Request: fold
Amino acid sequence: MSDECSVNGCGEIVITVKIVPGSSRTETMGMYGQMYKIKIAAPPEKGKANKMLINFLAEQFGIKKNTIQIKSGQTSAVKQILLQGVTTQDVQTQLG
Reply:
């Protein structure tokens, strides 16, 4: 059972993130209560911060951008993000 994630990802996981748009650089800030805090170096206008968030997460996890979806919070600082092909351990390692 230890190889259940080895072929084509590990199913889906939903995480909650709090983003801080307009920061000097894009980086993770660890846990913020029950969510992950991420600074985004893009303004919160015309979806720029959301696009940069997806690009950043894809790079962090080594997955394609189309495997990441903002489920809720399109215009909010707190977002529910659906990730495909990552494990809870991956999330904790990369964002925690």
Notes: The beta strands are 12-21, 27-32, 35-40, 68-72, 78-84. The chain has two helices and five strands. The chain has a mean pLDDT of 89.
